[in-house]
Amino acid sequence: MTGARLPLGVAVAVLAFVVWRVGTGPFLAGLRLVDGWSIAWACAITGITTLCCAWRWHLVSRGLGVDVPMRDAVAAYYRSQLLNLTLPGGVGGDVHRAVRHGRGVDDVGRGARAVVWERTAGQVVQVALTVVLLLVLPSPVRRFVPVVALGLALGCLVVALVGRALPRGDASRVSRAARTAVDDVRRGLLAPRAWPGILLASALVVAGHATTFLIAARTAGVTTSLSTMLPLALLVLAAMAAPLSLGGWGPREGMAAWAFATAGLGASLGVTTAVVYGVLVLVASLPGAVVLLADARRRPAPVDPEPRTELAVGGGSRA
Question: What are 197-222's pLDDT values in tens digits?
Fold first, then answer.
């Protein structure tokens, strides 16, 4: 499997396994339990997280010299989120956003890099917060977290050392790409006027997604403590970040089933919570459909390659 088939295949395989283990009841229960209050909360929180994501993109793109205005960033991010939730792999919307912005600033490469670094910054902050909270709070994977944290720290150290060791005069493609990446990080992520906002925006995004998952859990009937639920929410969000799903479906349900079962809450309740969460974020991202419709209305009509008869006879066209 290649391209879009691999994420779709993984999502279908995981969902099939979960259905085999718990049946279809938890899935149907999740669809049934979604109510107006949970949707209202999800839409409000998604509005805040989308604004934070757009702000993060604005800061990174400004540092790279391909600034995107906040109004355009918010609309593009809503569109991107909807596409991510409906296309295999969960990154189709980001690809569309990168190419569209790159064409708008006549620099597709730099526009694409701005999106890549913006998403990377968000993922790094999410991983860091997840590791810290899983170290502090009880979770099914708590005993493995120190090893994971050490591995991540060593990986960052290796990357930093390799970046410093690159010869400045080397003209190879790899060296040029590495130097471009180092320069992008310095100007787009670590600039004094960028990194505080990027860090704050990313932390708020993680908090917003986790809060939405906790709302989904309460809607599904979970009554356990916040200290128990927060690590489970972070584990499920981490599984959703893998580009091997259909808009999060598949790995999300699989991780929720395993995490809830390990925590003593039952795999079925985990699946129901994951389904409620999936419905909430999909509904909350529907403003992206409005942006897509507006894009379609603004799309220019195709040019007729054949001249009209009356214009050809008249020997000219109207101004």
Answer: 999 999 999 999 999 999 999 999 99
Is the per-residue pLDDT at 241 higher than 60? yes
Tokens of 52: 């934070």
Residues 253-279 have pLDDT tens digits of 999 999 999 999 999 999 999 999 999
Q: Phi then psi for 164, rounded to 5 degrees? A: -75, -30
pLDDT attached to residue 317: 36
pLDDT in tens, 76-118: 999 999 999 988 778 889 999 999 999 988 999 999 999 999 9
How many whole angstroms separate alpha carbon 276 and alpha carbon 218?
A: 10
CB crowding 269-287: b at 16 or more within 10 Å, else e? bbbbbbbbbbbbbbebbeb
